[in-house]
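Re: the request from the purification team.
They wanted to know what the chain is likely to look like in 3D before they choose a buffer screen. I agreed to run a prediction and write the result into the notebook, where they can find it.
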Amino acid sequence: MFRKDPQIKALANLKSSERRRMLTQILASYNLPSNLAKESEEKILPSTIKQTTFRTVKDVMGTIYTDDQHIPVWFKTKDSEDLIPTIYTVWKAPWLLPIVHTHPHVIEVLENGADLMLPGSVPPFDARINQGSIVGVADTKDVHLIKAVGFSNYRLSEFERTIGTTGVAVSVLHTFDDMLFKLGEKTGKKIRAPESLDMEMKLKEEEVQQVDASDEAEPATAALDDLSIEDKEGKLDQTEEPEQADSDDEVQLTTEDIDHIFRRALYQTLVQPSSPLKLPLPASEFMNHINDNLPDANHPSIQMKKTSWKKAAKYLKVMEKDGFLKLKGKGDVITVVSAVTKESNDTLKNFVPYKIKKKAAASTSGTTAKDDKKANKGLILEKWYKATSPIRQVFNDVDMSYVDYYSPAQVKEILNKYIAKNELINEKNKKTIILDDLLYSLLNKNNKPDSRVLGRDQVLEPFLSKFSEFYRLIDPKETSNESVPIIRGSVPTVQIITETKIGRKLITRTSNFEPFGINATLFANELKVKCSGSTTVGPNVQNPKLTEVTVQGPHGKIVMDLLTKKYGLNVNWIKFEDKSKGKKKKPATPSSTA
């Protein structure tokens, strides 16, 4: 981001109240204890803070925070609320960020503006690293000395090995010796990496005794909590008894009761969900899981609008603040990117699952339970989109994160938000919009003077074309798919070709199946049994980078059945071509006679 010198305005002092708010945000965002000693606090945020705005050559805008010596300590971009520490800050407080390690020669590549790829990262990974986490990058020779800062694109702790993988592990925002770092050297001295680091995060001594005292009181508090939970569950259980069918009218649930029920629905979702939870998910889809995991009690008050939060977005943000979720996005357009597990959270560890509502059977679907089971075996294709530079201004205008992945529905929501904010709806015909200069430059391909007015149904497709397309393949049989990478491009196509070799020997060739996680050797052995013919594994003739499995005989249908029924591929991801029959010759045209 800072390879070239950004445009920077004059520095201004930050008010002490704003500094305190900034410190509170840092402690919450990076899960730091609130009882940090003054010395440790000032390592992450000096007592005097100055701020200024910046603009990069790629039109990225944001704020830089410096100390009283004009050394940059934190920064953030306009399209994100994340406060990101500079190299100077993580050198003073090396315990601040989880670290991703890489090989020493890769650090030089990162300093030249590259991102850290998965194959270049070195396991094992810190368990704190989730998708979207701010991380430091250090080499394996000096494991604590951070040389780059960025955000993780995956829950890296899920990866035990990275050889043979693809994708960007860390999107790098700032590196040692980039233009942001060199702002600190404008004080007149060259700043070098420290030879040693202070790894101790110091806490206030008087707070230690208070913590011990609270630990002694913990059993009593837990007992009260248990009593409260049993009482509330007792109320709900009463509604299930046939002889007390009218108890719904008698038992009045308070707002506190309903809040408690929705909190426990989140715990149930994370511990024992009714259906597999595959993150990241848009907020609306995640709330479907919450509703599915509400207790089996038919009470009219158990609904989100009866809680103290009123709206799902506010509820999810409170759950994030309490440490259960990690969110991305602004306003109501948010995505749940990760969640804690039972193993890493004491509340979930002690949570006892309860009976949930049964899902209504879809009697009009025309499918049996057996058919549903078959259908659920298929891989699920998720399409994701990431904004490119030309539409960054749209994201800045609606205050949305530019660097996140968005589902098609979320992109549509962002576009509608921009249209509404800028009052682009045509009053004469509300099914159309009047393009402003920005949308006109993005969507008007023909540059016609009369093309300022477009139907609302004509806007989304050209708007999506300004995004980079990504995809992810989800296996519904897996309990967790958080480590499944999001891959650039569209879903690949498996090629199956039946053709005649020299003489009259028929063969069937299959290639480009490896992106779906299919092992070539195992696949060849399965075809050998199913087709009762010999198989070979080798490079594809047209593209030697692809592995190809060849089986003797015209077995296109068997190959397709194996790919769809066992490996879960959609038929739309497979292209079958039968070249064995050849092209029909055109009948000879009779010659005309004079």
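For the purification team: The chain has four domains: 7-187, 247-362, 381-470, 492-578.
Please add any questions underneath this entry.
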